[in-house]
Known about the structure:
Chain A is mainly alpha-helical. Chain A is built from 3 helices and 2 strands; from the N terminus they run αααββ. Chain A has helices spanning 8-17, 24-41, 80-84, and strands at residues 90-91, 94-95. Chain A has a two-stranded antiparallel sheet with strand order 1-2. In chain A, α1 (8-17) packs across α2. In chain B, α4 runs parallel beside α5 (173-179). The two termini of chain B are 19 Å apart. The interface between A and B is large, with 50 and 60 residues.
Amino acid sequence: MTENGISKEEVKHIADLARLSLSETELSHLADELSETISHINILFELNSRLENLVETNQVSGLENVLREDTVDQKRVLTQEESLSNGKSTHDGFFVVKRILG
Amino acid sequence: MKELNALTLKEALEGLSKKEFTAKDVTKACLLAISLKDPKIHAFLRTISYDIINDTKAAENTLLKSLPVALKDNILTEDFVTTASSNVLSDYKPQYNATIVERLLKAGALLEGKTNMDAWAHGSSTETSDFGPTLNPWDTARLPGGSSGGSAAAVSADLCVAAIGTETAGSIRQPASWCGVVGFKPSYGRVSRYGIVAMASSTDSPGPITKTVWDAAFLLNILAGQDHYDATSLPNGVPDYTANLDESIKGLRIGVPKEYFNGVDGAVSQTVMEAVKHLEKLGCVIQEISLLDPRYSIAVYTIIQRSEVSSNLARYDGVRFGNGRETFGAEAKRRIMLGTYALSAGYYDAYYKKAEKVRTLIVEDFNRAYKEVDLIAGPVSPTTALPVGATKGQSMFGELSDVLVEPSSIAGLAGISVPCGFAKGLPVGLDLMGPKLSEELVLRVAHQYEQSTAWHKEKPKL
């Protein structure tokens, strides 16, 4: 692993966080590709001295606290049938999901 | 007389009011053009079939009078498959329309079909589509740009009257530039994002891709405005964007940032500088300005976009709709992974937080520049259309090729790509960038540039 590099173990950990199952080949490719991308990103360290006292910008709409009435908008209500219409696996009007408790 | 599919939106509307033809004739001509030419470029993923076009009389009193409009395939259309060019959504039939689709339908548009794009809009080539690339109508050995490459190629090849794309950082302007058509990116929040497959929610901006600036302004009238389903949409009133297109531009100050010509192909630079000289002839005052090196924006955009992508794509689990996460393509996986890394414990401050601070620097840099000038002009892309295969093994292809449009996207500004000539036979786009909510100004200058040149009349021989 290089100075800015990401190891294969680290890639495996990130893949777990992102819920992606990756093959061994994908893991090694991604380790290289992510390391390459990180090397591009590190250009930002050049700006460190200009960033003191700056507030982060996480959105540029300029809007604050956009609220709406707490009412049901009938136009956006789907019937149960509509809601399930894209489900690959449904049962008795519900989506079937993987068991999450042992 | 022009073939009906080759008409601009304005020409089509004029022909309809003179009863020279019907909207159904125009749609028929477009669908015929698709059947003849689209096999060569693959701009469309699916179209409506001609037999389902109903009597268009009801739409006669609407703005668009049943004229056909193509939509990028990340825009949700009720009961009509919407894939974002990803296998994850290969058979997804949305239960509702995007707000902009509702607006287009209310304005009498006929939705002609869905256009190809980079899968999830992750790219600047349309080569990362899970359903195969779109090719450039000017040279089918080259890419159309992206991610709205299908929409830009469809407009360029006269397969539709007009199209809609979305831009997160270049995805409208860059393919418009490579395909020689007009692409308008509205200010962030001017057009609702509701019902559009989210990429980077803090910069996604839907907008028109058209044959002329007037057409873009006319469509923006329909698309723009606050939407209560998108809390980031702006409450500011929507003017008639076509009303002041011919008002004088004399004395307007146009800044040309020297940093935006570094690393740009010589022929592209020259073409854009000639366009700038032309603006001077039209009475604009040109002045050289200095902006933050756009290379920093590559890094900021990469971090912010990947982070937002990893969050937005976390919802795809194949339970409620779509297929499982194993169906993500290589590019989506790469982006999810980097975003997850940038947001993970220990790296959040070093990457994400730092990128958001530099974002502040970029916003402030533009605010300072717009005290000196009214608009900023530069090339849209450092190159003309690149050959098919150019993205292979290039994990940063999109970011590097969008270097000149990333800063204005990060700052949420309005911008347009307008055809300004050719370099070695391939189209070049002039980028005009204005402050937030300067739609009218950007469109006005672009319109007058376009109308006093003939570049927009050039068509590919497909």
